[in-house]
Amino acid sequence: MRSSSRRIVVLTVAAVLVGVTQLACSKEPAAAKAPAADEHQERHGYTALADDGHVVNGKLMLEMSVTEKGFEPSTVVLLQKNQPVTLLVTRRTEATCATSLLIADQGINEKLPLNTLVEIAFTPRQSGVLHYACPTGEVAGRFFVQ
């Protein structure tokens, strides 16, 4: 094998190993998973959805997590004014001050028990930025309402 061919093979193998390592490091431990979707389906009639949101029975459903990084996702690009929204929030860590979620403009102050799916329903009535945070304000996020 020529020197240049061997170098290409070595670089390709190195790139693949780096990619695999990154994937392995980004996974959360199994104990931090949200409750099973089937359990939620039985109790509430719909399945917990991905963070990009879906409309179910006229309500936008958004799944969020509280991790060591804070609220995830911390920014939802767009909500619609006067369209009902239900946040499906699961706190997955003890290492956070975000044990509650406050949305002052909506009069919401919901406790977030560890590893428990909490539903927070509201309807944005004004366009603009809608802020939410933990009780101390250190962990925060925002919604954009059109």
Summarize it:
The chain has 146 residues and is an alpha+beta fold. Helix content is 21%, strand content 36%.
Distance between the termini: 61 Å
Fraction of helical residues: 10-25%
- Return Rg in Å: 20 Å
Poorly predicted ranges (pLDDT <50, ≥5 residues)? Answer: 13-51
The tally of beta strands, per DSSP, is 10
Q: Name the average pLDDT.
A: 74
Strand percentage? 35-45%
- What's the assembly state of these chains? single chain
Number of helices: 2
Could you spell the SSE succession in H and E letters?
Answer: HHEEEEEEEEEE
How is the main sheet built? 5 strands, mixed
What are the defining features of this structure?
146 residues; 5-stranded mixed beta sheet; alpha+beta; 2 helices; 3-stranded mixed beta sheet; globular
Protein model, in words:
By secondary structure, the chain is an alpha+beta fold. The protein is 21% helix and 36% strand. It contains 2 helices and 10 strands, in the order H-H-E-E-E-E-E-E-E-E-E-E. Strands 1, 2, 3, 5 and 8 form a 5-stranded mixed beta sheet that branches. A 3-stranded mixed beta sheet has the order 4-10-9, with no helix packed on it. A two-stranded antiparallel ribbon has the order 6-7. Strand 2 (59-67) and strand 3 form a beta hairpin. It is globular and about 45 Å long. Mean pLDDT is 74; it is low at 13-51.
How are the SSEs ordered, and which strands pair?
Blueprint: H1 3-25, H2 37-44, E1 54-56, E2 59-67, E3 70-72, E4 75-79, E5 85-91, E6 100-103, E7 108-111, E8 117-122, E9 128-133, E10 140-145
